[in-house]
Design goal:
By secondary structure, the chain is of the alpha/beta class. The chain has one domain: Metal-dependent hydrolases (TIM Barrel, Alpha-Beta Barrel). 46% of the residues lie in helices and 12% in strands. Helix 7 links the parallel strand 4 and strand 5. Helix 1 runs antiparallel to helix 6, helix 6 runs parallel beside helix 7 and helix 7 packs parallel to helix 8. This is Amidohydrolase-related domain-containing protein. One of its GO terms (molecular function) is hydrolase activity. It comes from Streptomyces davaonensis (strain DSM 101723 / JCM 4913 / KCC S-0913 / 768).
């Protein structure tokens, strides 16, 4: 039997979450911050871009038709990161995670043989994170999507130790996908907020997990980094050098590059040479097909992008679906 083609980076838009937060105290300020970070030109493009993609983001039939056209058999569907809402209080944050978990599960239930889902956890309230993960798993989801940080907390914060412990014990998938970049207005032109901001946030978040020893303490974590892990995998040599020569960079037990082979990375790097280097650095068994469906910063032809890297036949099929299939529930 041929291994299915699996896209691990695909999103769903949840109008229920948007309706829940609309008009709440703090929502306007959060939108203002997002506007400052992106700049007026990006916002002018974002609205029509998302609007044109609403069917693919909300309608299962439209999603499946697009998947068929791409040659994708299975998607791992995660909520749009715009649903994180890290500004919300405990009560609202708990409602958001539960609603997102239930709505994502309901979306995937329309085609359970082709759609697997991930939920959300409110990183801004660490004591709610494990219950939110448990709720996601109870809905039949495979795990949760997490941001690169929460206000005032990095992923190295000890408050998240229960999350890593529970995710490791349950085998839950964690999909690391940033939303927004704390470089703020420095990136508010030319869509630098995304083109530079997203890979920067990925690199910072993964570095916190590596250097803090989280991956030493929880070697069984199944964590997938979006956008190929950002800048880190292809610039990991600088981290290794710092670990070797500076005692203050010795928070982890071994050279940082060795931890790349404990993580998973999607293939969405937009350059065949970079994809080849990602496969070399992380290993061909640690890279998974990803498209960022259906957004414009994704790829409409994920298999074409993978073919352009000219990997060996075995590595091509591992990235195409073999690696991801091993993470999915067995029939």
């Amino acid at each position: 039997m041929t291994t299915p083609t699996v896209d691990v980076h695909a999103h769903v838009l949840l109008p229920e979450v948007d309706a829940l937060v609309a008009g709440l105290p703090g929502h306007a300020q959060a939108k203002e911050l997002d506007a400052r970070r992106n700049g007026p030109m990006a916002l002018a493009v974002n609205g029509p871009m998302v609007g044109a993609r609403i069917p693919h983001l909300t309608d299962v039939t439209a999603r499946l038709t697009a998947m068929d056209a791409q040659g994708v058999d299975i998607q791992l569907v995660s909520p749009s990161p715009s649903h994180y809402h890290p500004w919300t209080d405990e009560e609202t944050a708990e409602k958001i995670s539960r609603l997102a978990n239930e709505a994502t599960a309901a979306h995937c239930a329309h085609a359970p043989e082709r759609l697997y889902g991930l939920g959300l956890v409110p990183l801004q309230h660490p004591k709610l994170v494990v219950p939110a993960l448990e709720h996601a798993l109870e809905q039949g989801l495979l795990g949760v999507e997490i941001s690169s940080h929460a206000p005032g907390r990095e992923l190295s914060d000890p408050a998240y130790e229960p999350l890593w412990a529970r995710a490791e014990k349950t085998g839950a998938l964690l999909f690391l996908h940033p939303f927004g970049c704390t470089l703020d207005e420095r990136l508010n032109r030319w869509y630098l907020s995304n083109t530079v901001g997203q890979p920067t946030e990925n690199a910072v978040a993964l570095s916190h997990l590596i250097f803090s020893g989280v991956l030493d303490r929880y070697p069984g974590l199944k964590l997938i980094a979006a956008h190929g892990g950002g800048y880190l995998p292809t610039h990991i040599g600088r981290s290794d050098h710092a670990w070797r020569v500076r005692p203050d960079a010795r928070g982890c037990g071994r050279e940082p590059s060795s931890y790349l082979r404990q993580l998973y990375f999607d293939s969405l790097v937009h350059d065949p040479h970079t994809l080849r280097e990602l496969v070399r650095a992380a290993g061909p068994d640690r890279v998974l097909l990803g498209s960022d469906f259906p957004f414009d910063m994704g790829t409409e032809d994920p298999l074409g992008a993978l073919r352009a890297a000219h990997l060996s036949d075995a590595d091509f099929h591992a990235v195409r679906g073999g690696n991801a299939a091993a993470l999915l529930p067995k029939e």
